[in-house]
Amino acid sequence: MPVGYERPASIDDATRLLATGGWQVLAGGTDLYPAHVGRPLRRPLLDIGGIPSLRGIRRTAAGWSIGAATTWTDVLRADLPPLFDALKQAAREVGGVQVQNTATVAGNLCNASPAADGTPVLMALDAVVVLRGAEGERRVAAVDFVLGSRRTACQAHELVVAIEIPARSDGARSAFMKLGGRRYLTISVTMVAVVVETDDKGRVAHAAAAVGSCAATARRLPALEQRLVGAASSDVAAVAQPADLVPLTPIDDMRGSAAYRLDATATLLRRALASLLPSTA
């Protein structure tokens, strides 16, 4: 039996269709199509690729807005401040160039894979997911949006329309690091995203750290973040203590043991922080 297909031209048209129920939203399709190799699609497709307002990165009064259909290549080509370096670094890790040209930032988040490269970065950036339904709009923090493996807070009648990133000072920078079985085209053993904002004296005014592939969802590390505030430089030997990694629940699998994942995560955190806050020693 043929599966239905619609390609709405506006967000309002899309939300009206979603309100009727049963739709599978299609953006880049780089996760959806491989998941259905050898088996038929069971739900009609709602292709949001024809809605121009969903693509692009825009400066707003409060920060930046990344449209839901913005691709990873769009991110790489955008003129963005150092705050977004981690997002650009993650963009280079999302498959190959062909995938980056098609896959979307919002799709990576909505797929809700524990190993999604973009999720820890968006969490560390304090991103907010903007959802639109026929009844209106609501916002959900990225840390609350992914509920578990393949589960999100997006309801069946809602469409992710944008991801908002709050503005920070010119001293804000970020870094993303990933460990896998090879340099590219690999699912991570672990990955970290770190955001650091410094004041005019060079001390840390704000810090955020998130880890992916070490739990059912990416997790922030609040204990580490709190300890970094006020630091004048990265004391590499003192960061990423065992207590900081308590939010993580890594598993043993073919890519590595839980113990290895924790050790590797601590190492990546040290390296990421050292790249943002070079030691004065």
What would you note in describing this structure?
Helix content is 26%, strand content 26%. The protein has helices at 11-18, 32-35, 72-77, 85-91, 97-102, 105-110, 118-124, 142-145, 222-228, 258-276, and strands spanning 5-6, 24-26, 45-47, 57-59, 63-67, 128-133, 136-141, 146-148, 151-152, 159-166, 172-180, 188-198, 204-212, 219-220. The longest helix has 19 residues, at 258-276. The chain is globular and about 55 Å long. The termini are far apart. The model has no long low-confidence stretch (mean pLDDT 93).
Keywords:
281 residues
Q: Order of strands across the widest beta sheet?
A: 4-5-10-6-7
What radius of gyration results from the CA coordinates? 19 Å
Element string (H = helix, E = strand): EHEHEEEHHHHHEEHEEEEEEEHH
Mean pLDDT: 93
How far the N terminus sits from the C terminus, by CA atoms, comes to: 68 Å
Shape: globular
**In percent, how helical is the residue content?**
25-40%
Care to count the β-strands?
14
Range of strand content = 25-35%
Task: Give unreliable regions as ranges.
Answer: none
Structural class: alpha+beta
The biggest sheet, with number of strands, parallel, antiparallel or mixed sense and barrel status, is: 5 strands, antiparallel
Question: How is the secondary structure organized here?
Answer:
Elements: E1 5-6, H1 11-18, E2 24-26, H2 32-35, E3 45-47, E4 57-59, E5 63-67, H3 72-77, H4 85-91, H5 97-102, H6 105-110, H7 118-124, E6 128-133, E7 136-141, H8 142-145, E8 146-148, E9 151-152, E10 159-166, E11 172-180, E12 188-198, E13 204-212, E14 219-220, H9 222-228, H10 258-276
Parallel strand pairs: 1-3, 2-3
Antiparallel strand pairs: 4-5, 5-10, 6-7, 6-10, 8-9, 11-12, 12-13, 13-14
